[in-house]
Amino acid sequence: MDTFSLWQLAALAAASTLVGFSKTAVSGANTISLAVFAAVLPARESTGVLLPILIAGDVLAVLVYRRHAHWPTLLRLFPAVAVGVAAGTVFMMWADDDAVRTSIGAILLLMAGVTLWRRREGPQPSPDEEGSGPPSRGERLKARSYGVLGGFTTMVANAGGPVMSLYLLSAGFRKLGFLGTSAWFFLIVNTSKVPFSVGLGLIDARSLLLDAALVLFVVPGALLGRACIGRINQKIFDRIVIGATVLGGLQLLLG
């Protein structure tokens, strides 16, 4: 850590605080944290440093919203996510930083456009309103598509948040169901990524030492997000999530 300047450490600390806030308030906003980490650290190595920070935020989010998860949705997503994580691991073996950023940025902007187009058709029913019957063929196809993209993007750049945010919005999730389902999803997925990241050399003793200093800043961000979420209107919440996704996509696409 003695190789970092004061402003670089301050930027990493602020980005870690934003991770905590995004996990308990506006999922997808941590794409800004991703951009900050990639600006201070080499883009490829930054993913390994950021992963434990994200897991810490996931743990805090699960503690707060664990009762609001919609497990049928999670179970539909996980098989496709596993395929995406495997594809992302293979991609990371040969892709350089520019290829990673361009690919993820293009995917996020495409998904944001699709979500906005779908929302013009009218409000989507929430999962609780859909009943207990089996999902339609279209819903299964959508879950698989978003699952693969979410697994791929979270493996190569820790950028699965916006993809899954768009899926949960398109599925009609309200705030608490959105945050509870997202919290469990990313705790399970990010934890499962650790062996792959270690194998790729993205997590090592040096990265964990930096994580030990930065993880303390996740807690105040999570507390701030928990205090703010009850004051955010549902429509404003949806717009913030989509806006954060677009900004994150542009940041990655434009480098």
* Major pleated sheet: none
| SSE succession | HHHHHHHHHHH
Distance between the termini: 25 Å
Rg result: 17 Å
Stretches where pLDDT is under 50 for at least 5 consecutive residues are: none
Find the count of extended strands (DSSP E, 2+ residues). Answer: 0
Beta-strand percentage range: under 5%
Q: How would the global form be characterised?
A: globular
Number of domains: 1
User: Which class do the helix and strand fractions yield?
Assistant: mainly alpha
What's the pLDDT, averaged over the residues?
83
Main location: membrane
Protein name: Probable membrane transporter protein
Organism: Streptomyces pratensis (strain ATCC 33331 / IAF-45CD)
Membrane topology: Multi-pass membrane protein
Main attributes of the structure:
mainly alpha; 11 helices; transmembrane; transmembrane helix; Probable membrane transporter protein; transport; TM_pro_TauE-like
